[in-house]
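thread: overnight batch results

M.L. [08:02]
morning all. the overnight job finished for the chain we discussed friday. pasting input first so we're all looking at the same thing
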Amino acid sequence: YTLPIRSSDGLKLRFKLPVQLGIYRFRAVDTNGARIRIDQQSLAIVPGVELQIPIAQRTVLKPFADLGVGHGFGVASGADILIYTAGVRSVTQWQAGEYKLSLGAAALYAGDTASDFNESYSSLQAGFEVRRPLGFSIQGVAPDLGIYAANYYYPKPLRFSRFLNDPLKVSNQNEVGFSIGVVKPFDMLLFGNARIGVGYVFGGGLNVWHASFGFPF
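M.L. [08:03]
and the structure it wrote out:
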């Protein structure tokens, strides 16, 4: 939900309420031949607030902060965790004929903490997106397509534990993806300017497919 603060200069306050459901399934064979089966689920709600500050004709600066909780089910049943993120994003956009070009950048610090452990990371990010109408309409709604690429750099490499292997350290990743939306924004259910697509993150030995809701800046 976006709340205008000063319409004269475009200053806005945006409230977010993302909900994440995790379903994890691990199967392996131990060195003694024993089979290992781990099933776990998680639910996290991390509300946040973002201040949108126009700093030039085409650029918007977006300082933000998120704070919420997660809960583990299954193996980690009863485990509660505090989740936080803070940082700043910016987006610069140009219109070139039918094409909308977006340049994004971000710096953030994020982490989580529980009763028996905590972890955190920082990230510097940059990306570029090209969007254009698809040239047709469905019941008066004209869809558009956006294709984007982004880079994520971690000054302190991310560290992932691995079964019977050395920890995986990731310091740099890239993402490519697309999303389909509409030329003229409208609200669909609880989603403002709804877009949906797919993103693929790769690099450092860690590859991830995920649902994409547009340019991540």
